[in-house]
Design brief:
Layout (H helix, E strand, L loop, with lengths): L23 H5 L12 H4 L2 E2 L3 H6 L2 E5 L26 E2 L2 H12 L14 E5 L3
Antiparallel strand pairs: 1-3, 2-4
């Protein structure tokens, strides 16, 4: 019994260059990223004050990051990388987490779920 012909594909080669530096001279042009103030695990553990839904759906205001310490966040703040939330709605913000977010954004991290993705201001719950 004759075997059926096997389809053949012709692969075309394309030239491709990676978007990152590859030669030693390119690497010399790179500048180091600004430092990120990463808090200790204890400093990253925020006090849970109200239910997340109450903080998220309740009355809120947008305040400058300098005025957010001690306030209850009304939004999730997830810097990427690493993509792990630093603050959840209903948690009281501390200086260490705010500094982590600020220095992280300066170093190139993004906070895609924040109302202000540059983290110049934070959406917080209005406390009664």
């Amino acid at each position: 019994m004759p075997s059926s012909p096997t389809p053949t594909t012709t692969a075309r080669r394309r030239s491709w260059s990676p978007p990152w530096p590859t030669s030693p001279t390119d690497l010399d042009d790179l500048r180091p990223a600004p430092p990120v103030d990463v808090p200790s695990p204890e400093e990253l553990t925020l006090e849970h004050v109200v239910l997340p839904r109450d903080a998220f759906f309740g009355p809120t205001e947008q305040v400058p990051i300098a005025e957010a310490e001690g306030r209850i966040t009304a939004e999730m703040l997830t810097p990427y990388p690493p993509g792990i939330p630093a603050a959840l709605p209903g948690e009281r913000l501390n200086r260490q987490v705010l500094e982590y977010l600020r220095t992280g954004v300066e170093a190139g991290m993004v906070v895609p779920d924040a109302a202000d993705q540059q983290v110049g201001s934070i959406r917080v719950a209005i406390e009664k």
